TrEMBL record:
GO cellular component, one term: lipid droplet
Protein name: 3-keto-steroid reductase
Organism the protein comes from: Heterodermia speciosa
Family recorded in the similarity comment: Belongs to the short-chain dehydrogenases/reductases (SDR) family. ERG27 subfamily.
Alphabetic keyword roster: Lipid biosynthesis, Lipid metabolism, NADP, Oxidoreductase, Steroid biosynthesis
Stored InterPro entries: Ergosterol_Biosynth_ERG27, NAD(P)-bd_dom_sf
Gene Ontology terms describing biological process: ergosterol biosynthetic process
Top-level taxon in the UniProt lineage: Eukaryota
GO molecular function: 3-beta-hydroxysteroid 3-dehydrogenase (NADP+) activity
SUPFAM superfamilies on file: NAD(P)-binding Rossmann-fold domains
Region feature (Disordered): 47-71
Secreted recorded as keyword: no
């Protein structure tokens, strides 16, 4: 689910401390209290002293064209103080004017970048949507947000924030390849990518079941719904003209494989980012609905799954959590670019420190139009979300702006801090809230992995919001999860190689 963006509580990161509503706390302890499309970030120096006064933020974005949509607002793609972000948008299932997670990530990223980063750094934000109309509408909203922020701070933020739009269809591998080629030829590097775009494949709700389980078990069923109906067996349009082309699942390609191909093709830009005092970061947006029961290795694309969306999110969890394990290293190394240049095979060890760091995160449960509902039912959904939060659910962030807390934290936190937090194992980070709506970031328990990939007793605060049927991690389960991760990486790399040959990359 997505979320409606409400500019409310801002989370500020300064050094190793986490500031929430003006209250400073130690970052690690705060992270344990709760859980906090495609976005690329690059950081560089701000305008030089004596620079001419920046142009005002435009009321409307410039006219766009496929061949001339590189820099929409400013032309500063040089220097070491530039942070470049790429955000892709989810396909909305409703025409309701509700802010989605991608837009909210952009707004929160702008707010926290301005609040926490020195004036010498500038932010270049790249958004990706499926069509030009959506790009224009999104740019208009982001420029309006910038104007509002400028009025609040009494400063023209045009000197620190630039915005660029691109189009891509993640279910089309040709479109993904075209975007990566364009970015590689126009950008000096990439610092952060938010892989946010996705497709749920939801077709309806089992209303009779929902009418029974929601009143009788509201907090649990609003958190882990058992009444959603999804399409089964959806496949993409043909990728090539070949008659023997194998099918690609629509949800799998939109949520996993399209991102997977794009990150692989953009690896040269991440290597460039490693020269700017930080490694590039790839932030995969997952969900709390990635249940173990929804995924099977024999149906990795989820074509036969009752919920291909949940299956794709479980696959995302498995891939990223096991990406640092020795058993997956040979496949992860190829994915992160070791086979991009055959002449650089002897530099694999040197490139190890240049690879992007991959992180797993989810926004909690947000009230967006990701689920197709009429306005009245949408209002009822929002009310039940608040009710679930008041009953003690930590995951009902409700607003997408609050849901963006964890993704933006991962984008802006010091690398040393993140390295220390994941030194004992990778975690699935999530946005969470208190009953009163105060947001924070917390590790999320994953079936077969726990919270750090270790067999350990979890503290009471780490068990908040646990799904029924999930028990303490055993050594056997952890080993099975890691082996499943190895097999998933192996299959996905094989699929990537197969399609690269078919399309002729």
């Amino acid at each position: 689910m997505g979320a409606a963006g409400q500019t409310t509580v801002a989370l500020l990161l300064r050094g190793s401390k986490l500031y929430i509503r003006g209250m400073a706390r130690n970052a690690p302890s705060s992270l344990e209290r709760g859980r906090f499309g495609l976005i690329l970030i690059r950081v560089g120096p701000g305008p030089e002293s004596g620079h001419s006064r920046p142009d005002p933020i435009p009321e409307n974005p410039p006219n766009q064209s496929t061949s001339n949509n590189r820099i929409r607002h400013g032309q500063r793609l040089h220097g070491k103080g530039l942070l470049i972000c790429l955000v892709d948008w989810c396909k909305q299932a409703s025409s309701l004017p509700i802010d989605g997670l991608g837009y909210s990530i952009c707004c929160r990223l702008i707010d926290e970048f301005i609040s926490t980063q020195p004036p010498s750094l500038t932010l270049h934000l790249i958004i990706t949507t499926r069509d030009e109309r959506k790009s224009h509408d999104t740019l208009s909203k982001l420029f309006a947000h910038l104007r509002q922020k400028s009025r609040e701070l009494r400063d023209n933020l045009n000197s620190r924030v630039t915005i660029q739009s691109e189009q891509v269809d993640l279910t089309s591998l040709q479109s993904v390849h075209a975007l990566s080629t364009h970015l590689r030829t126009t950008l000096p590097r990439l610092d952060v990518v938010f892989l946010n775009a996705g497709y749920g494949g939801l077709t309806g709700i089992k209303w009779l079941r929902a009418a029974w389980v929601i009143p009788t078990d509201l907090r649990y069923e609003i958190t882990y719904p058992s009444y959603n109906v999804s399409a089964v067996g959806l496949t993409t349009k043909s990728q090539t003209s070949s008659r023997d082309e194998p099918a690609l699942g629509t949800v799998f390609t939109s949520n996993v494989f399209g991102h997977y191909i794009l990150v692989h093709l953009l690896c040269p830009l991440f290597t460039s980012a490693s020269t700017a005092q930080r490694s590039g970061r790839v932030i995969w947006i997952s969900s709390i609905e990635g249940y173990a029961s929804t995924f099977t290795l024999g149906d990795m694309q989820g074509l036969a799954a009752e919920s291909a969306y949940k299956s794709s999110k479980r696959l995302t969890d498995i891939l990223i959590l096991t990406s640092s394990r020795l058993s997956t290293r040979q496949y992860v190394s190829k994915f992160l670019g070791d086979d991009v240049s055959k002449s650089q095979k002897d530099e694999i060890d040197k490139r190890e420190g240049c690879r992007p760091n991959m992180y797993l995160v989810h926004p909690g449960i947000c009230a967006t139009s990701f689920v197709p509902l009429p306005f009245l039912l949408y209002c009822c959904m929002v009310f039940t979300f608040y009710l679930a939060r008041w009953l003690g659910s930590p995951w009902h962030t409700v607003s997408a702006y609050k849901g963006a807390a964890a993704p933006v934290w991962l984008a802006l936190a010091p690398q040393k801090e993140l390295d220390e937090l994941e030194a004992d194992g990778k975690s699935k980070w999530g946005s969470c809230v208190s009953r009163g709506g105060e947001e924070s970031v917390m590790r999320t328990e994953v079936e077969g992995w726990g919270v750090r990939g270790q067999v350990e007793a979890l503290a009471a605060k780490e068990l908040r919001g646990r799904r029924r049927g999930v028990h303490e991690l055993s050594m056997e389960e952890q080993e099975r999860f890691e082996e499943l991760g190895r097999e998933c990486w192996q299959q996905l790399e094989g699929l990537r190689t197969e399609w690269a040959k078919r399309i002729g990359w």
